Amino acid sequence: MSYNNILTQQEGNAFIITINRESKLNALNRETLQEIKHAVLSVQNEKTVRGIILTGSGLKAFAAGADISEFANFNIEQGKKLSSDGHEVMNTIEQSAIPVIAAVNGFSLGGGCELAMACHLRIASENAKFGQPEVNLGLPPGYAGTQRLIQLVGKGKALEMLITTDIINAEQALHFGLVSKVVTIETLIETCKEMVDKIATKSPSALAMVINCVNDHFKNTSPGFETEILEFGKAFGTNDFKEGTSAFLEKRKPNY
What is the Cα–Cα distance from 37 to 6, expressed in whole angstroms? Predict the structure, then answer.
């Protein structure tokens, strides 16, 4: 199937999904997220696919956040729907029986960081940058970032990143457990393919069971996930959201 915003191809054991919006730093609009979800689901019964690699086009960005212009004028109910739909996409990736590896090239911010965290493994290039800058827009993260960041780096570091919006580099991400390996940009995809080849020597059914067991420990149906959807939607009714998104689109600092 052809898509408008992503490219897909199979190389050996690996099914590679590339976000193809390089001119927009691979920003995640709603259509792009749904295409990623469809692509992941489309190979679940393909026996020749032993791993999925998710990456961004170009050298600058894996995905530099959500497409702000798309939802700047949303109301509370539209905001809740946006978050709920985003959670569904991230859950689809997390619950994939085929391991999904995020090949993080460049910026992985906001929704992009949430997308990477939904993957089972994250391998970063040396120029990768991670962060959750949503509060600059008068919003909390909306695609389960408040929940998965805690799981990966712990409550203290997660809160620091969420409320200061500090961006961390690849080596810091490795230190805090956000990624499992850092490699050069030139070897990023090849390293991920090698990981898939290693995975391909293991039992597919056992891998699916492991993923299910690990996911069950964190249960993405816990109250925190639903709270994030509600709080994200609520933010769309605040003056802070109006000021934050206006400032972003006008390329100025917000005045809170």
Answer: 11
Q: Give pTM, 2 decimals.
A: 0.95
Q: Is 114 a catalytic residue?
A: yes
Q: Which ranges of the chain would DSSP assign to H, the alpha helix?
A: 30-42, 68-71, 76-94, 111-118, 145-153, 155-164, 170-176, 188-199, 204-218, 223-235, 239-249
| Residue 200, amino acid | A
The answer as to CATH 3.30.70.20 being correct for domain 6-186 is no
Residues sharing a CB contact under 8 Å with residue 165, sequence separation 6 or more, in sequence order: 131, 132, 133, 134, 135, 136
Catalytic residue among 11, 70, 94, 114: 114
* Most distant CA atoms of the chain, gap in Å: 55
Mean pLDDT value across the chain: 96
Annotated active-site residue 194? The verdict is no
pLDDT in tens, 86-98: 999 999 999 999 9
pLDDT digits (tens, 9 = 90+) for 137-146: 999 999 999 9
Q: What pLDDT is recorded for position 69?
A: 87
User: Of 35, 94, 134, 228, which residue is the catalytic one?
Assistant: 134
